[in-house]
Amino acid sequence: MTKPLRRDAEINRQRILKAAQEVFAARGVDVMLDDIAHHAGLGVGTVYRRFPTREDLVEALFDTRLEEIVGWAEDGLRHADPWTGLTEFVERATAAMAADRGLRDIAFSRAYGRRRVAEIREMLAPRVEALVTRCQEAGVVRADAAGVDLVLTQFMVAALLEYAEPIAPGLWRRYLTLLLDGLRFGTTPLPVPPPEVENMDRIAENWRPPRRPSAD
User: Fold this and answer.
1) Which residues of 15-34 are buried (b: 16+ CB within 10 A; e: fewer)?
2) Domains in the chain, start-ordered, CATH in brackets?
3) Are 19 and 207 in contact (CB under 8 A)?
4) Are 34 and 44 within 8 A, CB to CB?
5) For labeling, which of 27, 33, 202, 207 is most exposed (least CB within 10 Å)?
6) Known PROSITE patterns for this protein (predicted)?
7) Distance CA 94, CA 172 (A)
8) How far is it, in rounded angstroms, from Cα 58 to Cα 113?
């Protein structure tokens, strides 16, 4: 059984988590623990005692955020209208990523996160596939679409978020709508098939957000 932290230690832990959430949201997860310590107003040693590596912080912060996205996919599957269920899921997930660079990094890159984060990612994939399949069965999504197409659509919107959101907040909504309309039934046949499922991890391994300047 894990021994409870002393009150002062728990206060410091919560300060670290709050600081990490703010720094990750603003700058992404590709930061140093020193940056977290500085933002929290704590010594670096205090941060390292609670979270020896950045990955420990990522696990502590993002498992619940990713579980929330899984829950949104399940909400979409329960929606009476399949197309609305799919689009509302994508819009909710993208809005969350627009507000949090760290969540964007975690959702798309396999370079961050350990066992728990990886498990939740695996939970999300079949639900996204089911959202697409349900729409196809209802005749509202093209037959040659796949769940991975939805993921890669969000990859494309994530690139727009990275570069346009600070200048034109919310612009992503326009282009997400255009991309989602491309999934609709009765459009031009696609020239190439979707990527194999096993290749998605390889694609995600190549996702690297651009180097972001220090907040100092």
Assistant:
1) bbbebbbebbbebbbbbebe
2) 1-52 (1.10.10.60), 54-205 (1.10.357.10)
3) no
4) yes
5) 202
6) HTH_TETR_2
7) 9
8) 6
Structure tokens at 136: 């196809």
Angle formed at CA 93 by CA 177 and CA 55, multiple of 5 degrees: 140
Instruction: Give the residue among 61, 67, 115 at the shortest CA–CA distance from 93.
Output: 67
Q: Give the count of beta carbons closer than 10 Å to the beta carbon of residue 170.
A: 10
What is the spatial distance between Cα 5 and Cα 66, in angstroms, rounded to a whole number?
26
Collapsing DSSP to helix, strand or coil, 184 comes out as: strand
For the chain, give the mean pLDDT: 85
Contact (CB, 8 A) for 106 and 58:
yes
pLDDT score of 195 = 72
Half-sphere exposure of 181 (CA within 13 A, CB side): 6
67 by DSSP, 3-state: which? helix
